[in-house]
Design a protein that fits this description.
Number of domains of chain B: 2
Oligomer: heterodimer
Distance between the termini of chain A: 25 Å
Strand content of chain A: 15-25%
Largest sheet of chain B: 3 strands, antiparallel
Structural class of chain B: alpha+beta
Number of helices of chain B: 10
Shape of chain A: globular
Order of helices and strands of chain A: EHEHEHEEEHEEHEHHEEEHEH
Number of strands of chain B: 6
Radius of gyration of chain B: 24 Å
Distance between the termini of chain B: 66 Å
Strand order of the largest sheet of chain B: 3-4-5
Strand order of the largest sheet of chain A: 1-2-3-4-7-9-10-13
Chain lengths: 281, 260
């Protein structure tokens, strides 16, 4: 069983808010950072991160591990990740169920995989290799998707669950991504939640998206919309108390607004789990 | 399709190596009436270009300001198609932009490549590892009469750039929101470095740039000072330059070969 941490409610640490984090410890339980932005060995980003780490837990969230790529795992990347893990001692190390490099070129995007047995075996072996290298379990996030593959033989939630079972990795369940992909492909997001083993979920992500008319785009540039809050409630009912993070990466508002979203997540969690806690007591 | 075939196709479509050709796409991808497979793949292609151009804009803010949204976007798209990212850090994408601008120069602004060189040097300084800064008293490590044998380790953030045009003035005017002067012929040399969290740059005399490069190559003080040999008072100029290097925090360590 995946050992779930009790971190509470966090936000993504972004450059725009560095000054506030340097001056004080804002009222959040933890922060997540984009791993690659802190891999440089010196300069302001890593200095800020070390200060923040003294104040609260930090989660490393990568975008370039490219776990699904057929390129060999990048040795320079793993070495830099290893150094950062050793320097920061993060609460979790996470990345995405995707690929983003091919023939040595990086597209800097989270490209989805065809959900086949071949992909599953490939990704599971690479997750095991990364976990062995880091000496710790990693968590992988479900991507938001706009394409589906003719060759897929299983749903994303089946793939992710089986990957977690085979490799021992945890699942970072991005509730917004579930909603975005469900709208883009016409499946019921509740089926997705029901298909995931609660014991495998180690973290939730919450974010906003843009409605482009014919599809939803995962922009992280808006407040969490009502439909995603509603799905978050469904997730809480199924998975219980899970460390939750609000992501905001585009049109980033003042810190207080992001923190308010995180507090809202905490309030919703308290509402949803109160009956459970009352029953338990 | 195998996973390898799928990734080859998808990567080619996203990066523009392959045209958004409907039959090929529909062999690999599923679409809906509302959003056909070709339109779905196009979402990824547009995001690919947009993301990399945004990364370039962040690294080259004054070049982007000068060219404006559309021209910089077109430059970025052409550049990325010729020099796709080969590093996991998207901030490295602009590594060869100055070289690209030299290869395809703008006849009206031949100094664009030099402006890009300045911004890249500043970017490298920003992300460089931290270095200590030592004072001139450390030269005492050489011992009496052996200063000429001392070697300097310069700050990891220090970059020395040779420019064909005086793009330092171009950079300064764009940075302060002014209209640029016409291109001013050089050559000039420029040093960029970081102190604390702040990045600086300044022009340096050509012989001082040579001396800095000599020091970076690990040569001893006598070779470093030889760069000033053609000055009217070589010793005074070398001394003044060295004093300013210590003062700016460019010298991280002084050492002497024990066998010397």
């Amino acid at each position: 069983m995946f050992q779930r941490l009790d971190l509470g409610h966090g936000i993504g640490l972004r450059t725009k808010h560095f000054a506030r984090f340097l001056a004080e410890a804002p009222p959040v339980d933890w922060v997540e950072v984009v791993t690659e932005n802190f891999m440089a060995d010196g300069g302001r980003p890593i200095a800020v991160l070390e200060k923040v780490r003294r104040d609260m837990p930090v989660v490393l969230h990568g975008v370039s591990l490219s776990i699904g790529s057929l390129d060999p795992l990048s040795e320079p990347y793993l070495a830099a990740l290893e150094r950062l893990v050793s320097r920061i001692d993060p609460a979790m190390v996470t990345d995405h169920l995707c690929w983003g490099s091919h023939r040595g070129q990086y597209v800097h995007d989270l490209l989805p995989l065809p959900y086949t047995e071949e992909s599953l075996a490939h990704v599971a072996s690479r997750v095991s290799a990364v976990q062995e290298r880091l000496g710790r379990r990693i968590l992988l996030e479900n991507p938001s998707s706009y394409v589906a593959f003719r060759d897929s033989t299983m749903a994303e939630w089946e793939f992710l669950s089986e990957l977690s079972r085979r490799s021992g990795c945890g699942i970072l369940l991005d509730v917004n991504n579930v909603y975005v992909s469900a709208r883009n492909f016409g499946f019921d997001p509740i089926d997705y939640l029901d298909g995931i083993d609660p014991d495998q979920v180690g973290q939730f992500h919450l974010a906003g998206h843009s409605d482009k008319g014919r599809y939803l785009l995962d922009t992280h540039g808006e407040p969490v919309p009502p439909a995603v809050w509603a799905l978050y409630r469904e997730a809480l009912r199924r998975f219980g108390r899970v460390p939750s993070l609000v992501e905001w990466d585009d049109h980033i508002p003042p810190l207080d607004e992001v923190v308010a979203q995180s507090r809202k997540a905490a309030a919703i969690e308290a509402e949803e789990l109160a009956p459970v806690l009352r029953r338990a007591s | 399709m195998t996973l390898a075939e799928t990734q080859e196709l998808f990567h080619g479509l996203v990066t523009g190596e392959l045209p958004l050709d409907a039959p090929a796409i529909e062999r690999g991808f599923l679409g809906t009436d509302e959003l056909p497979a070709t339109d779905r793949v196009a979402i990824y292609r547009n995001m690919y270009i947009g993301r990399l151009v945004d990364a370039l804009r962040e690294t080259f803010p004054n070049l982007a300001r000068f060219l404006g949204e559309d021209r910089f976007g077109r430059l970025g798209e052409s550049y990325v198609s010729e020099h796709p990212s080969e590093h996991h850090d998207v901030a490295r994408i602009g590594r060869r932009l100055a070289e690209f601008l030299r290869e395809y120069p703008d006849p009206d602004r031949p100094d664009l490549a030099d402006l890009a060189d300045i911004e890249w040097a500043r970017n490298e300084a920003f992300f460089a590892p931290d270095s200590p800064a030592v004072g001139p008293d450390t030269l005492a490590v050489a011992g009496p009469g052996k200063v000429a044998l001392a070697r300097l380790r310069l700050s990891d953030s220090l970059r020395v750039v040779g420019l064909e045009w005086n793009a330092a003035s171009f950079w300064r005017r764009m940075e302060s929101g002014e209209l640029p002067d016409p291109p001013v012929p050089g050559p000039i040399a420029l040093a960029a470095w970081r102190r604390g969290f702040e990045v600086f740059h300044c022009t340096v005399p050509m012989e001082e740039a040579t001396a800095l490069r000599t020091a970076m190559d690990g040569e001893a003080m006598d070779s470093i000072c030889a760069a000033f040999a053609d000055r009217p008072d070589p010793a005074a100029d070398a001394h003044a330059a060295l004093a300013s290097w210590f003062n700016e925090g460019w010298i991280a360590a002084v050492s002497v070969d024990p066998a010397a």
